[in-house]
Amino acid sequence: MSTAGHSAYRGRFAPSPTGPLHLGSLLAALASWLEARHAGGRWLLRIEDIDPPREQAGAADAILHCLQRHGLHWDDSVLWQSQRSAAYDSALAALQADGHLFACACSRRELGPMGDCRRGCHQRGCRQRGGAPERPASPYALRVAVPATFSAHWQDTWQGMQDWPLGATLHDFVVRRKDGLYAYQLAVVVDDAAQGITDVVRGADLIDSTPRQRLLQQLLGYASPRYAHIPVLTDRSGQKLSKQNLAPALEATAPAHNLRAALAALGQATPPAHASSVEALLAFALAHWEPAAVPAQPVVSAAATH
Ligand code: GLU
Fold first, then answer.
1. Buried (b) or exposed (e) across 209-222, using 16+ Cβ within 10 A?
2. How far is the CA of 109 from the centre of ligand 1 (A)?
3. Structural domains counted in the chain
4. Are both 135 and 156 inside the same structural domain?
5. Within-domain flag for 214
6. Are residues 21 and 96 in the same domain?
7. Which of 55, 91, 137, 237 is the most buried (most CB within 10 A)?
8. Residue 90 and residue 72 in one domain
9. What are the start-end ranges of the H helices in the chain?
10. pTM for the predicted model, two decimal places
């Protein structure tokens, strides 16, 4: 008999190898590791290498090495998205067969300001035409026809009750890009399901992706995991720390210092001075893990200097 609730906890960290980890990514890795280990669950690692133009040579290896240096050891073998094309193709085929996809060759200029298939595309009738592209010779993206009544609701561990009326905005999002690459939204949903993920812990900068992912889960008949979005880490000027704005890479040689900074940003108790090794710090953090102390709002990184 299947149960309504979630089975044993399975969490994950899913970095894209577009650059080295920074303190903001360590926060996500550490929070998801603490949640998983605290629940006695498993913590899986997935490298989201599906966007070669944005990737940086050596970044994936540097990420694995950096996690290990910080004592964040994962269970099972790493899942590499670059090896998952067959799974993504079959998800696309299933969506296509159920009439959820349409082809869209609209250029950026023709689309709405969000790059979403909104005004331009709807006027051209891409969605009405369904699977067939208007200009078969030109490259086209595959988009999901978001049902007008679709709304995503979930209780987010740190961001509270969420209610996103996705259908009302008519943003029919891309699942396979014009350049033939799979979209993040598709790959993440297929792989969260394949890895049996029960709990997604990640940065609040990704919260607006969650409604799209919940829709795909529904259309593909997958269970939705629980979601917990941690606060975004900003620098002193309020700018989010990210690879794009060149947040300083974590010094793999200062893991204890980095873990202390990440725990402070997560509102956790300060480990005693004698907890100097990575193992001692993580053991303390796990024993004192207090999810309720994690702030919902962005936090300023004391370690970020620009
Ligand atoms: N690969 C995404 C990133 O590095 C995160 C995906 C996720 O946690 O869902 O931003």
1. ebbbbbbbbebbeb
2. 27
3. 2
4. yes
5. no
6. no
7. 91
8. no
9. 23-38, 59-69, 85-97, 119-124, 126-129, 166-169, 184-194, 210-220, 255-265, 278-287
10. 0.91
